[in-house]
């Protein structure tokens, strides 16, 4: 055995091991993993992206597969496990091709042709015709969210229809409740409380809403007060300097009062002098609010964010509700329902973390479809249909590349095979049964065994496309490595 073959074999084995870590999590009846670090911190999940992100691996080839799983999660939100399992099977099949005398470059060429044929076949399929609720339920299946499948699916669809894109969804996760209590709040939630508890707010808050003033700053000492040295000769001069600073703060505070605001939300801090004056005037304050939250709040209430308070400062009408979850105070603000915040509850922090991961996947795939992506049938049926298409057209390529294309087709079948195996049924029998039907529509029956129509089980086309492309690219990159050389560290 040559040194290059030894290197390739070791790389392939490393990828196989990392794939075996997540393989049993694939499908509706996939198992969970418990991950424990040196400090005893525990994560229980069957989310492939989380497992691969947290797994302790040092092998460079395994790290390449972890990177491609991150790319899959970024592009398609879900399908990370399928991508890694497919890449592992492509590499395993390449070993058989090496044994038959094929060079790695020939295998790579064949895999590249097969990938292009697979994508062309995928794009040529008819849309499965499902709806947003069905795509959400497919993403939920096999996760802890499945206990409230209908509620969660409806909540995912409602959230995406309100927000538009999964990346724009803001979430508040509060331990101590039940998943079924989760809901979509049409407004902005601040992980803040009023300065001093907001007793003045409790005294005058009305059901008609209050006037809110949004400020970037202006209620604290200016930077010049901190950066400029002033020499004084006696206590009287020092008092004059202090008085000048207080006068500016009081002028800004009076401008706030003139605006008619009942509540001030400030991105910067608020000086004690301004706090004392405004609270005496019955005005509640919230300080150090992130800029992104300020922008969302501005959009929600339809009021601008002022750099400093002055005579022209304008306010907006807002309704405010104070809530406390797990001893943490939050301010729920809503006005025109232009913004939305997903409120999630879970019994413990660990279950809540898993709920959030499940929602991330489901919101992502719903977002893809909502924004124009098409659907294909899930359960591995689309992968097997593509595999049959490759075998039927591989003869047109001929030569040794044909062998690589057929190996690529065999690898695609690992997805439905693994789903059936994780459900406790024979993988080979399932694949053979699927081959004798219309494979685009039939997949593994994880409840009764055999196969079943995949109506109601859908995946975004871009998810499958990204999984096939990502798995092929990382496979080709690994197969092109014929030696691992130690590099000099940074000096």
Describe the model.
Helix 4 (80-99) packs parallel to helix 18 (461-479), helix 5 (104-124) crosses helix 14 (381-394) and helix 16 packs across helix 17 (427-435). The chain is α/β, with parallel strands linked by helices. The two termini are 37 Å apart. It is 52% helix and 14% strand. It has three domains: 3-128 and 375-479, GroEL-like equatorial domain (GROEL, domain 1, Orthogonal Bundle), CATH 1.10.560; 132-186 and 343-370, 2-Layer Sandwich (GROEL, domain 2); 189-339, 3-Layer(bba) Sandwich (GroEL), CATH 3.50.7. It is elongated and about 85 Å long. Residues 224-228 and 236-244 have low confidence and may be disordered. Strands 5, 6, 7, 8, 9, 10 and 11 form a seven-stranded mixed beta sheet that branches. A three-stranded mixed beta sheet has the order 3-12-4. The chain has a two-stranded antiparallel sheet with strand order 1-2.
């Amino acid at each position: 055995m040559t040194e290059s073959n030894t290197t390739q074999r070791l790389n392939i084995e490393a990828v196989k091991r990392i794939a075996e870590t997540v393989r049993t999590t694939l499908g509706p009846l996939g198992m969970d993993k418990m991950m424990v670090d040196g400090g005893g911190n525990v994560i229980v999940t069957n989310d492939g992206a989380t497992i691969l992100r947290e797994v302790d691996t040092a092998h460079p080839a395994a790290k390449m597969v972890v990177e491609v799983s991150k790319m899959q999660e970024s592009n398609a939100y879900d399908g990370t496990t399928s991508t890694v399992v497919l890449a592992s099977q492509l590499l395993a099949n390449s070993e058989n091709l090496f044994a038959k005398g094929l060079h790695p470059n020939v295998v790579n060429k064949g895999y590249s042709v097969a990938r292009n044929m697979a994508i062309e076949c995928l794009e040529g399929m008819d849309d499965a015709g499902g709806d947003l609720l069905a795509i959400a339920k497919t993403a939920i299946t096999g996760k802890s969210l499945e206990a409230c499948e209908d509620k969660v699916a409806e909540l995912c669809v409602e959230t995406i229809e309100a927000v538009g894109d999964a990346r724009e969804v803001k979430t508040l996760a509060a331990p101590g409740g039940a998943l079924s209590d989760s809901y979509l709040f049409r407004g902005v939630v601040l992980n803040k409380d009023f300065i001093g508890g907001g007793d003045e707010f409790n005294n005058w808050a009305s059901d008609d809403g209050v006037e809110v003033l949004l400020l970037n700053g202006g209620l604290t000492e200016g930077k010049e007060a901190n950066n400029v040295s002033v020499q004084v000769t006696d206590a009287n001069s020092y008092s004059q300097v202090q008085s000048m600073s207080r006068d500016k703060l009081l002028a800004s505070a009076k401008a706030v009062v003139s605006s008619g605001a009942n509540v001030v939300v400030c991105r910067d801090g608020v000086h004690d002098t301004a706090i004392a004056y405004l609270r005496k005037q019955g005005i509640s304050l919230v300080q150090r609010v992130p800029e992104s939250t300020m922008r969302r709040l501005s959009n929600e209430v339809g009021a601008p964010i002022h750099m400093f308070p002055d005579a022209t400062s304008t306010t907006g009408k807002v309704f405010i509700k104070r809530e406390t979850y797990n001893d943490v105070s939050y301010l729920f603000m809503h006005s025109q329902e232009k913004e939305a915040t997903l409120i999630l509850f879970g019994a413990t922090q660990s279950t809540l973390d898993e709920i959030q991961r499940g929602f991330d996947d489901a919101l992502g795939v719903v977002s893809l479809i909502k924004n124009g992506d098409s659907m294909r049938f899930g359960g591995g049926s689309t992968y097997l249909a593509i595999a049959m298409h490759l075998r039927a057209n591989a003869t047109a390529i001929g030569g040794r590349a044909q062998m690589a294309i057929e190996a690529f087709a065999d690898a695609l079948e690992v997805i439905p095979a693994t789903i059936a195996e994780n459900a406790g049924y024979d993988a080979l029998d399932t694949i053979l049964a699927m081959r004798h039907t219309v494979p685009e529509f039939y997949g593994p029956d994880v409840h009764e065994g055999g196969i079943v129509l995949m109506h109601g089980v859908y995946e975004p086309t871009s998810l499958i496309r990204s999984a096939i492309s990502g798995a092929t690219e990382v496979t080709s990159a690994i197969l092109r490595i014929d030696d691992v050389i130690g590099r000099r560290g940074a000096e």
